[in-house]
Specification:
- The protein is α+β, with helices and mostly antiparallel strands.
- The protein folds into 2 domains: 79 residues, Ubiquitin-like (UB roll) (Roll); 92 residues, no CATH class.
- It is built from 9 helices and 5 strands.
- The protein has a 5-stranded mixed beta sheet with strand order 2-1-5-3-4, with helices on one face.
- The structure holds iron/sulfur cluster (2 copies).
């Protein structure tokens, strides 16, 4: 075993003092130390947003919100997993929205609290994916759903933005709504529509593989 493979760092994760190689993520380090945590652990690839952690690094006073599967363990690091209550649910069916003229009014019926945004920026500061969450809420509230939805493309639904909002807005669900209605009410790509129409009319020739 060489020196590099023997190297370990000391950290505190969820109150447990652990030792682990610095090549491991926070979650892997916890497992490595013999703590088989499964709560708040999901895809392990930075996509699902389950493993939200508060991180304080050695000699720093700032506490950051990061993902436990993406953050490598460091010497002197303090980590605490965030466990949130179940998110607020906004019930709606896209098929109940008559047409795109009705969208803006329906949005404010479904998300009445969105109009109360204080523009405090707390949601944006907390977002581990660097999304301008506050702007997304503002755009959706103004009926600019396509622009709002584009801001939330990287959202992993970790709920951090929702948990920190004093107005109890669920910005991630606002973003999801914006993306859904954009897809539901807007035309599909013209080349795709054209190709499907060709298939419907029987005009599309499919080359058969002569070897089969
Ligand atoms: S945390 Fe809530 S009130 Fe503050 S900017 Fe975000 S959505 Fe608005
Ligand atoms: S927008 Fe909210 S739910 Fe989505 S990644 Fe950012 S903090 Fe998480």
């Amino acid at each position: 075993m060489n020196n590099e493979s023997q190297q370990v760092v000391n950290a505190v994760i969820d109150g447990k003092a652990i030792q682990a190689p610095p090549s491991l993520s926070v979650i892997q380090a916890l497992w490595h130390a013999g703590y088989p945590r499964v709560k708040g652990v999901g895809c392990l690839e930075g996509v699902c947003g389950s493993c939200r952690v508060l991180v304080r690094r050695k000699d720093e006073s700032a506490v950051n919100i990061e993902l436990g599967c993406q953050t490598l363990v460091e010497e002197g690091m303090q980590v605490m997993f965030l466990v949130f209550p179940n998110p607020t649910h906004h019930h709606y069916r896209l098929s109940h929205i008559q047409n795109s003229w009705d969208l803006h009014a329906q949005f404010h019926r479904i998300f009445p609290e969105a109009a109360n945004c204080r523009h405090c920026g707390g949601c944006t500061r907390g977002c581990p994916k660097g999304i301008d969450v506050e702007k997304g809420v503002e755009l959706a509230s103004a009926g600019r759903f396509k622009e709002a939805g584009e801001l939330f493309v990287e959202c992993i639904m970790c709920n951090i933005c929702m948990t920190g909002c004093a107005e109890e807005i669920a910005p991630n669900h606002v973003g999801l709504f914006a993306r859904r209605v954009t897809a539901y009410f807007h035309s599909r790509p013209s080349n795709l529509i054209h190709r499907l129409e060709q298939i419907r009319k029987g005009e599309l020739r499919i080359e058969e593989d002569k070897d089969e």
